[in-house]
Amino acid sequence: MSTRDAAAAIPREPGPINQILNPIRGPLIVAAVMAAVGTMLTLAPLAGIAHIAKIVLDAPALGGAWSTEAQGEIWWTAIVSVVSMLVGMALVSAGELTAHQADNRLTRRLRLAATQRLAQVPLGWFTNRASGEVKQAMQDDIATLHSLTAHFYTAVGRAVGAILISVIYLFILDWRMAVVALLPFPGFFLFLRHAMSSSGTNMQEFVARLGRINSATVEFVSGIPVVKAFGASGQAHSGYQEAVDAFAKAFVGFTRPLVATMAHAHAMIAPVTVLGVVLSFGALFTSLGWIAPVDVLPFALVAPGICAPLLLLHTLLHDLGGATGAAQRVLALLETPVLEPLLPDQQQTPAGHEVRFENVGYAYDGGHQALSDVSFTLEPDTVTAIVGSSGSGKSTLARLLLRFFDPSEGRITLGGVDLRHIDTSELYRRIGFVLQEVRLIHASVRDNIALGRPSASQQEIEDAARAAHIHGRILTLPRGYDSIVGEDAQLSGGERQRVSIARAVLLDPPVLVLDEATAAADASNEVAIQDALSRFAQGRTLMIIAHRLDTVMHADYTLVLEDGAIVEQGAHERLLELNGHYARLWELGGYETRKISEEPSC
C-alpha cells in the first residue's frame, strides 16, 4: 500500500484541522501507512491457520499420514505467520511512536505560538475574557488535539488496513463467498444513513433545549439565596421544571429514532450475524459443489473480524467533530489581533514624563463610542483626578494610557513620544498602575511583588511590602514570602490590593495610574491602602480614577467625564462654583464642603 493510497483512505478533515495539522501532515501519513501495513501483517496468522487446516484435512486423502513435504509446508507456514506477526507489531509500534513524536512537536509549537501571541495582544483583550476561555484553548483544546494527532491517524490506518487486507484475501479465495460474507456491511451503512437523517430533523430542537436547561440551571442555582429569603420556591422551581420537561421531550424525540436504528445497524454487523451468514451460505455452496467444506474456514475466521475495525472507524469519524471544535478555538486564539509591532527604527525613547492626550477617541468592537475628542495634559509631579458617572469612560481613559488597547482616533504621548512608538517593556518601566481588579499569579508572594523587577533583592522586596503596609501580614503566612498565592497564602481583597501596590512601589515608575484602587476594600483595609498610596504618590505624576469625590478633592486638577467627553475641568473649589456636573455629583454623594487646606485623604 503506497503513501498516496493511505492518504486517500484517511478521510479529509474540515478546514481548521487541516490548518492545525499542516506542519506534521507528512509524519502522520507515514505513521498511518506503517500502522496499516503492520495490521495487515499481524493478520497473516489467520491465513496461516486456514492454510495449515487445509493441509491437515487433506492429508487423509493422500494416504492417511502427513508426508515430509506436508510437514515442511506446515512448518514454513507457521514460521512465516509468526514472523509476519512480529514484523507487523513492530510496524504498528513504529507508527504509534512516529505519531506521538509528531504530536509532541505540534503541541510544543502550538503552546509556544499561543504564549507568544498572548504576549503581543492588547492587555484590554484579557479584561473582556474569562481566564477559563484562554485555559480551555491552551490546555484543554490542545489536549483534545492530542487524541487526533497521536491516535486518530494510526487508528484509522489500522482499521483501514485490517478491512482492506481482509476483503482482498476473501476475494482471492472465492469471489462468490466473499460477496455473500460481506452482505451485512452495506446494510450497516444504510441503517446508519437512515439514523443520521432521522435524528437530524430534531437536532436543532435538542440543541436549543439543551442551551435552555443550562441557562435555567444557572438561574436556579444563583437564585437560591433569594428563594430562601423570600420563600418563593414554587415560582423559582417552575421555570427550571419547565426547562427540564422540555429538554426531556426534545431528548426523546432526538434519540428514539437514533437508538432504534443504530441498534439495528450494529446488529447487522455483529460478529455472530456475519458468522451466521458465512456458515449458512457456506453450507449452501458446499451442497451445490461450488466450494469444499474446508474452504469455508477462512471466511469463518476472517469475515467476522471485519466488524471491529469498521465500528472503530465509525467511532473515530464521529469523534472528529470534537477535534474540529477544539481546532477552531485554538486557531481563534492564534489569530487574536495583536498590538502593531514596532520596527527597530520606529522605537523612540521618551524625553521626560509629561503625558498628553491629543484628540483621543475610542470605540469598542461592538461600535460603542467610549471616548470622543479627549485632550488634556498630565504635568510632571501633579495629581490629576478623573471623575464622572458610571459608564462615562473613566476606566477606558486609564486603560488607554496603560496601552491595554490603542486609541481609535488621536494619540497619547509620554515625554513627547507616541505610546505606539515606545517598547512595551520601556513603557511599563515608566508607567505603573494599581487597578480595582487585582491580578496575582499562581506563584510565591515574593514573585508576585517582584513581577516587574525579577532581579530585585529580598531587602528591596521587603521594603516595598513595608511601604504598602503588607509586610507584617506576609510574615504571618506559613512560609512568609515563599507562600504560594492561592495555596498557603489566602489573602483578602484588600491584602491582595496592597500586594499589587508593593509591586508598583518596587517598580518605582515616575507615572502612576490608580483606578478605583480602594473600591473593593473594607474600612480598615481602605485606610491602610490610602496611607500606602499617599506615601508612594509623592514626587510622581498621578492619574486617579475615582468614584468617591472626597478621596480626590485635593487633586491639582480634576477632569469631569460624561458620555466619553470632558465636560468640566479645574480644581475642586472652581468646579463647585460652576454648579455643573461636578457639583451635582458632589451633592449626590452627600459630601460636606471642606476647605482646601485639609490634609488629603490619598
The strand order across the widest sheet is 6-7-8-3-9-10
| pLDDT averaged over residues | 77
Shape: elongated
CATH homologous superfamily grouping of the largest domain: P-loop containing nucleotide triphosphate hydrolases
Helix content: 55-70%
Largest sheet entry: 6 strands, mixed
Count of all domains: 2
CATH fold group of the largest domain: Rossmann fold
List the helices and strands and how they pair.
Elements: H1 3-9, H2 15-21, H3 25-42, H4 44-58, H5 68-118, H6 124-127, H7 131-173, H8 175-181, H9 184-200, H10 203-222, H11 224-230, H12 233-268, H13 271-287, H14 297-302, H15 307-334, E1 355-363, E2 369-378, E3 383-388, H16 394-401, E4 409-414, E5 417-418, H17 424-430, E6 431-435, H18 445-449, H19 458-467, H20 471-475, H21 493-507, E7 511-515, H22 523-537, E8 541-545, E9 557-562, E10 565-570, H23 572-578, H24 581-589
Parallel strand pairs: 3-8, 3-9, 6-7, 7-8
Antiparallel strand pairs: 1-2, 1-4, 4-5, 9-10
Helix pairs in contact: 2-15, 3-5, 3-7, 4-5, 5-7, 7-8, 7-15, 9-12, 10-12, 19-21, 21-22
Structure, described:
- The N terminus and C terminus are likely disordered.
- The protein is built from 24 helices and ten strands.
- With 602 residues, it is an alpha/beta fold.
- A hairpin with a 5-residue loop joins strand 1 and strand 2.
